[in-house]
Specification:
single chain; mainly alpha; ABC transporter involved in vitamin B12 uptake, BtuC; two-stranded antiparallel ribbon; two-stranded antiparallel sheet; 14 helices; 3% strand; transmembrane transporter activity; ABC transporter permease; membrane; plasmid; cell inner membrane
Amino acid sequence: MAIILKGEMSGASLSEAPLLLLLKLRTFIALFAVVIFFSFAAHNFVSWENLLIMSRHVALNAFLAIGMTFVIVAGGIDLSVGSIVGLSGMVAGGLILHGIPLGDEYTLYLSVPEVIVVALLTGVAVGAINGLLITRLNVAPFIATLGTLYIARGAALLSSNGETFPNLTGDPDYGTTGFPVIGSATILGIPLTIWLLVAVGAIAAYIAGRTPLGRQIYAVGSNERAAQLSGVRVNRVKMFVYMFSGLCAAIVGLIIASELVASHPMSGETFELNAIAAAVLGGTSMSGGRGKIGGTIIGAFVIGILSDGLVMMGVSAFWQTVIKGVVIVAAVVVDQIQRRVQQRFALQKQAATGG
């Protein structure tokens, strides 16, 4: 039997407090470090024009990462988001250029708002398929979303035989003009994409932190069986997170197609890796049950600034891939260290108070 003095245990707890604080602030520290580094290493890195360009890139990754955060917190994974980006963009491009054929003589053309709704519903539908495969057929999330990754990408390629839908400016005669505004418009000098990110991020943060649904998502990820016994409708929660992830991916597909004024079936390829990296770097635990939307958005900034900074420095695309992989592994390792330190800190605090 070991006898532990409360005073000694309290001192040990205090000694680990600074380390735990540093681990919790790791995303802020990483963001500060990359900004300072590229400010000196890359020419014109801190110029207003470059900051606007980077903000657009960061926003695309952040949208996906927000949806991915909900999925990972609930104990799952979504590998299909990159393919949903491509498919939703192709749906929008096809509707604007070719409409919906109604027999041999008539074609139905949708207005831009209607096209946007259909493209968003496409992402939600793929997310719903993911959710049904996982909840009803008990397919592992990794396998289910890997399958829909290929299905969605194949559907995007089939929609145009692998070709691009170009010149999505629309036709005034059909009422399909205005689509490029999504990617080019600014409000108070700030791109519309950033305002959309603020809105989606605020809604997601509110759901996660202030609603019963948010608490249920965390409960399912922490202990699915316990959540089910406590009355949580686990299957509905899982359906929601995958559908929300699909919605976020569809938003990215629309933004990319609007910015390029064209849609390509391979848009969004490997975007799921950046989304996972941003979520994990932002403090989302791959084991589920822990993560915050704010941390995820900061993680997206780190990944986005790192990518753009390396490009500005002329670093090879191959080395960029290696560096991103290192960042993902390092983020997971640090997350595991934080969990162990938190557990030890909690045990020491309990022993020190005689609990």
